[in-house]
Amino acid sequence: MTSAKPAQRIEWIPIDRITVVNPRVRNQRVFLEIVENIATIGLKRPITVTRRIESDGPFYDLVCGQGRLEAYQHLGQREVPALVVGADAEDCMIASLVENCARRQHRTIDLLQDIGGMAQRGYSHQEIARKTGLSYDYVHGVARLMDQGEQRLLRAVEARTIPLSVAVDIAESDDQGVQRALHTAYEKGELKGKKLIAARRLIDERRHRGKRLKVSTQKSSRLSTASLLKAYREDVERKRALIRRANGAHDRLMLIVEALHRLRMDDTFTGLLEDEALGTMPEAIADRLARRGQPYHA
């Protein structure tokens, strides 16, 4: 498998021709922050895609940048700047996994789905570790927990509540074996103090509620009036902050235009500029001065 090589220039690509190969559910608050950031200062880093040719023209598969792509779409844009790389579906999947591993606040389930997807596609644990930069022990341990549906233990490992090796021992033991695993981890210094208490609480939850995490589907329907009002007020305050920044930038630009106009009207200053071969002005600035009704002569 060959590695993807980035393109030398950025292309503007229609959003409706981009397919998200490895989609994820985004935290709504974080997503709105991305939207606001792009709306305020623009897109700092283009998305990355790979091109595929179909009968009705070129289409693109997303390699990385789902949040940025969806933010652009949310803002009503029809095109998005992108780096086009040469990569097949396997490369795209690996690149997406690597980006997810590198993300500061990634969800455990996302990482598991990526590793599980590579395993289902025929990759060995050694290959997954080599391609993603994760250790073999981590990949192997995660795969074992995932095969047994140990979502609670996996979340605890990602939160660093318990070590991965201890989680594997717990997953493969009966009740007595679990207590021995906790005792051994305590003697080795792997679980002490608050971590030991958290581990015992986790074991109790696992025993009474099962291995898997239950995701509530009723959260959105239980929003209180106070929560909605708080969200509305926060949104209004963000918009007011944007307006304040915009007004401040407008005032500063007007000040700059006025200063340029006065300097341009100063014969001594323009004479110095001409002596230094700096007597010309960018066309955009000249046009801006002209729109203020102040004549400009090149």
Automatic annotation (TrEMBL):
Assigned GO CC terms: chromosome
Domain ParB-like N-terminal span(s) in chain numbering: 11-101
A biological-process GO annotation: chromosome segregation
Signal peptide per UniProt: none
InterPro entries cross-referenced by the UniProt entry: Chromosome_partition/occlusion (IPR050336), ParB/Sulfiredoxin_sf (IPR036086), ParB_N (IPR003115), Plasmid_RepB (IPR011111)
Protein name as catalogued: Chromosome partitioning protein ParB
Provenance organism: Novosphingobium guangzhouense
